Write a sequence for this structure.
């Protein structure tokens, strides 16, 4: 006996599902064909693609091909994210995640705003030549600015690679530019210059003189001094707690940052009896709040002190013109460090007093002074050995 299959093999028009996420295939009477849809991720967004065919198999194959093409980036549209857009978002995320402090946030944004020749360009349009021409146009800027711009662009391209906006970080192939500005090292005041300045600050009516003296005798940064509050001074333990600094944010707005320039900058400075008397004069009858607030009870900025400091040096002819080097407000900090080295203070102790993150910073900054001090001590050692008839020849 022969059995015959009488069931039709003609494709049914009802919906036939693909694997999960692949959409569906169905018969379209108006077109007299099958159709199918699939959801694909294109440029980070979900988009629907439709395929048509005479049979279900043809449609399924087309949908499968769409999926393969999408994974290969065939449907990707050009990403026109600009340098500014990506950098701004990156900086905001770093700040929101507490990866950077307010001061770093402001500094990065200021650097970004100064990059107008390229920040409106799409990341994918930036070439090595574009970057090089940008740095050439800024080559007369300070080395500090060039370093910041270079580092920011490097970070932005890293982010672009991570987000697959570009395929490589072209900054890895570009050398950091060197400024055409002559680098004149900031120097400390000589002993004679320091004595003259101290006499003037004590005898004349110089605005912000107390802040200048405090920097000269503690090595504190001016922003740290202007942020000092009465509660930061402990007369029982004879300590100054350094934990804040006055900073300038976007649009020149001044504020107190609840952290110092570096993590190591959060430190405790010990003081002697003379400094205790001086600090009591600075505080006066204040019970709390800022020690060095302005006459209208506002923050005193580093620029304000620097202006008075420069005028004082010029008006009272403090500087010895024959001594090479740049003298600015930071020279007060250098002066303190130099006198400490000359007195025989070990580099590690000085590092902690100045709030340097690494002892190499201390050694590199004051290498000339340390070398001179070493030579002087070597001469003392030589003299000692000779006096005891110890000699190589």
């Amino acid at each position: 006996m022969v059995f015959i299959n009488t069931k039709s093999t003609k494709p049914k028009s009802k919906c036939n599902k693909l694997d999960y996420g692949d959409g569906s295939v169905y018969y379209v009477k108006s077109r007299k064909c099958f159709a199918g849809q699939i959801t694909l991720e294109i440029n980070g967004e979900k988009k629907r693609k439709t395929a048509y065919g005479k049979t279900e198999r043809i449609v399924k194959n087309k949908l499968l091909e769409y999926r393969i093409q999408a994974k290969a980036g065939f449907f990707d549209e050009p990403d026109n994210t600009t340098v500014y857009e990506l950098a701004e978002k990156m900086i905001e995320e770093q700040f929101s995640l507490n990866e950077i402090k307010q001061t770093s946030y402001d500094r990065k944004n200021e650097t970004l705003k100064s990059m107008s020749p390229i920040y409106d360009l799409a990341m994918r349009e930036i070439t090595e030549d574009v970057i090089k021409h940008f740095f050439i146009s800024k080559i007369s800027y300070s080395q500090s600015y060039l370093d910041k711009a270079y580092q920011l662009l490097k970070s932005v391209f890293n982010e672009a690679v991570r987000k697959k906006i570009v395929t490589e970080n072209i900054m890895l192939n570009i050398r950091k530019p060197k400024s055409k500005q002559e680098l004149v090292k900031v120097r400390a005041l000589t002993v004679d210059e320091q004595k003259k300045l101290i006499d003037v600050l004590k005898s004349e009516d110089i605005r912000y003189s107390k802040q200048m003296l405090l920097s000269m005798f503690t090595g504190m940064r001016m922003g740290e001094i202007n942020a000092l509050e009465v509660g930061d001074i402990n007369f029982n333990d004879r300590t100054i707690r350094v934990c804040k600094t006055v900073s300038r944010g976007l649009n020149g707005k001044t504020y107190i940052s609840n952290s110092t320039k570096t993590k190591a900058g959060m430190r405790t400075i010990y003081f002697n009896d003379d400094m205790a008397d001086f600090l009591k004069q600075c505080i006066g009858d204040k019970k709390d709040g800022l020690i060095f607030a302005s006459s209208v009870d506002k923050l005193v900025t580093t620029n304000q002190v620097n202006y008075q400091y420069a005028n004082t040096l010029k008006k009272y002819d403090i500087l010895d013109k024959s001594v090479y080097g740049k003298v600015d407000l930071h020279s007060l900090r250098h002066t303190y460090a130099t006198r400490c080295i000359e007195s025989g203070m070990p580099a590690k102790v000085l590092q902690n007093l100045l709030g340097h993150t690494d002892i190499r910073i201390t050694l590199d900054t004051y290498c000339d002074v340390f070398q001179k001090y070493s030579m002087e001590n070597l001469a003392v050692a030589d003299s000692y050995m000779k006096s005891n008839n110890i000699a190589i020849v």
